[in-house]
Design a protein that fits this description.
Elements: H1 2-25, E1 30-33, E2 36-39, E3 45-49, E4 52-55, E5 57-66, E6 72-77, E7 91-94, E8 98-103, E9 109-117, E10 129-130, E11 133-134, E12 137-139, E13 143-156, E14 159-171
Parallel strand pairs: 7-14
Antiparallel strand pairs: 1-2, 3-4, 3-8, 5-6, 5-14, 8-12, 9-10, 9-13, 11-12, 13-14
Length: 179
């Protein structure tokens, strides 16, 4: 019996330590640099189509923040594939042909924008389509699409990195031509 306890005890200690570190990592989303707090994760993104808007779902990101003591805190967070997020995405219905990307803090550049037809929800093997980007505006495709945008903030003011965002937009489909 005693041998069994000594085999299980180290595993329990490691599991408890991992749980404490995970809880400590979830304690908040601000760190202090000097006297002002800065986000320890990328800025949010709101999608605007005419008078309607929706907050994008933040996905995978890599973010770094310089701490008061001069060390750098690096966070790498993974997320579900955008096509697995149907229950997490609010559908934005619009007749607009374009959507504005309004970041809480504008990125230095948008790396790419892609989409999948909503017919492919749950299908990771579906081919993604490139989306036209013009500044902070993307061209929408007719029908229902899950959009994926990746942006980059250069490391300045002690923070920066890359982040991915997903959102679901349904636009009016053009009428079918008369046969």
């Amino acid at each position: 019996m005693r041998k069994h306890i000594f085999r299980v005890l180290p595993a329990c200690i490691l599991l408890a330590a991992a749980a404490l570190m995970a809880l400590a990592g979830c304690g908040g989303n601000l760190v202090s640099i000097g006297s002002s707090p800065v986000p320890d994760k990328p800025p949010g993104l709101t999608i605007v189509c005419g008078e309607s808007s929706v907050d994008a779902l933040q996905g995978t990101y890599s973010w770094q923040t310089k701490l008061k003591d001069g060390t750098v805190d690096n966070i790498i967070a993974d997320s579900m594939h955008p096509l697995d997020c149907e229950d997490l995405l609010t559908v934005l219905e619009t007749d607009e042909a374009a959507a504005a990307l309004q970041f809480a803090e504008p990125p230095d550049r948008i790396l790419h924008a892609q989409c999948w037809s909503d017919r492919h929800l749950g299908d990771h093997d579906a081919e993604k389509e490139d989306v036209e980007i013009n500044g902070y505006e993307i061209t929408l495709k007719p029908g229902g699409y899950i959009y994926h945008v990746e942006a980059e903030w250069n490391v300045h003011d002690g923070r920066g990195g890359t982040a991915c965002y997903s959102f679901y937009i349904k636009t009016s489909e053009p009428p079918l031509p008369d046969a």
